[in-house]
Amino acid sequence: MNEKTTFEKIEEPSITVVPGIRAAAVNCGLKKKKSDLALVCSESEAAAAGVFTRNRVQAAPVKLCRETIGSPVRALVVNSGNANACTGDKGMKSAREMAALGAAALGLKPEQVLVCSTGVIGQQLPMEKIAAGIKGAAAALSGDIEAGHRAACAIMTTDQVTKEVAYRSYCGGRPFHLAGMAKGSGMICPDMATMLAFLYTDLAIPRPLLQELLQEAVDRSFNLITIDGDTSTNDTVLLMANGAAGLPEVEAGDGLCRTFAEMLEQACSELAYQIVSDGEGVTKVITLELQGAPDRAAARTLARAVLNSPLVKTAFYGEDANWGRILAALGYAGVEFDPDRVDIYLGPLQVASQGGAVAFRESEARSILKKREITVRVELNSGNCSLTAWGTDLSHDYISINSSYRS
After folding, report:
1. Of 38, 50, 51, 65, which one has the greatest count of Cβ atoms within 10 A?
2. CA–CA dist 407, 147 (Å, integer)
3. Which segments of 119-249 does DSSP mark as H helices, in order?
4. Paired sense of beta strands 174-183 and 343-346, if any
5. Which of 63, 158, 73 is nearest to 116 (CA)?
6. Is residue 297 over pLDDT 60?
7. How far is the first Cα of the chain from the last one, in angstroms, to the nearest whole number?
């Protein structure tokens, strides 16, 4: 199958645009009023791939997903408001019970149900509320667009808006789809924040290939964003392929595989950007274009050093063209490069040349820094690798939000 295809964005994104995917959301009492439990079900078995946090402290649902991800799945249960992290043996038992409850409500086996949680760390799940929520969600499952939107709302914590994407393409005149939803606003610095993302496609893709494609897409998207430098205990990205499009199974390297890989990277990048844009207390979204790095690993390390620097972040919040903070952050990243060859630009305005000062108009710099979306280009001139990463400023509101999160 070497047919060349392209893909189009679906203007009203929802995971339920993927054939065979149904969703529901309920309030089960983990939050006072807002929905806090989502249930997503595929009408047929789906191959599943996952990328998880590398934090040594891992939540019970992350551990359970790692155990079950190798088998075909049918359903996903996600609760918000409680992370089920640092909860010991009881928390692990609760995660398994969530899967069993989902299976019982849908007539499935527990190993066919994946479980994720997000919210406050260190609190046990109230399983009576979870049980009632799963039962209610199972009765409310729907394939309509709004059901997908409601599920995207139910997984939110401090998020202000839902994060959703959907794409369609064609092969031999027959459509296939990819759609996803994500949550995340703080504790964001994925290393595979409290970051969750769930993607669905109706293509048939063997699990090893699905895992390979997901890992590559995550490395080029979610692993290149940061809000506050904190890697969560619950970071999870899941991708399910149910084959409902009725097309031949995707093979590595064929035209359909290449198109899907492009769709997947675009979907992950868009969700990642939506997470950064909705960051806690964010007033500036920074796109860092790092050029001329020795290799990709070095570029990623350098990008994180810049975007995680409190001094860089506060300079952007204060709309101060303090390029020296960017150069200093590059210097302590632990990567070999020649500081005397570095050029730095804020938008089109060059503010540093060959590692030193260059004359620029402060008024022009301020007009660039007053915008919500700011592009920073760093030319290292020390290699051939380039990448784009995304970050934010650090505001007073971020401190206010996180100083009273549990209360």
Report:
1. 38
2. 30
3. 127-139, 145-154, 207-219
4. unpaired
5. 63
6. yes
7. 55
Q: What is the CATH number for 161? A: 3.60.70.12
**Residue owning tokens 């997908």:** 148
Length of the chain, in residues:
407
Domain end position, chosen among 225, 251, 277: 277
Annotated catalytic residue, options 194, 231, 233, 236: 194
Residue 39: give the domain boundaries: 7-277
Q: Nearest to residue 112, comparing CAs of 85, 148, 76?
A: 76
Assess whether pLDDT exceeds 50 at residue 334. yes
Q: What is the dihedral of CA 254, 260, 261, 264, to 10 degrees?
A: -170
- Residue 347 resides in a domain: yes
Q: How far is CA 121 from CA 72, 85, 86, 343, in A?
A: 29, 5, 7, 42
User: What is the DSSP secondary-structure string of 18-39?
Assistant: STTEEEEEE--SSSSSS--EEE
Alpha carbons within 13 angstroms on the beta-carbon side of residue 223 total 21
Tell me, what amino acid is at 295? D
Tokens of 384: 């051939």
> What digits encode the pLDDT tens for the residues 88-119?
999 999 999 999 999 999 999 999 999 999 99
- CB–CB of 237/66 below 8 Å? no
58 and 41 within one domain: yes
* Same domain? 40 vs 144: yes
* pLDDT value, residue 232: 67
* Exposure class string for 186-218: b at 16+ Cβ within 10 A, else e: bbbbbebbbbbbbbbbbbbbebebbbebbbebb
Query: CA Rg, the chain, in Å?
Result: 22
Residues 233 and 357 in one domain: no
- Domain assignment present for residue 310? The answer is yes
* Cα(314)–Cα(305) distance, integer angstroms: 14
User: What element of type H or E holds 356?
Assistant: strand 356-357
Q: How many folded domains does the chain comprise?
A: 2
The pTM of this model reads 0.86
| CATH code (residue 345) | 3.10.20.340
Q: Does 16 participate in catalysis according to the annotation?
A: no
Decide: helix, strand or coil at residue 270: helix
**Is the separation of the CB atoms in 317 and 394 below 8 Å?**
yes
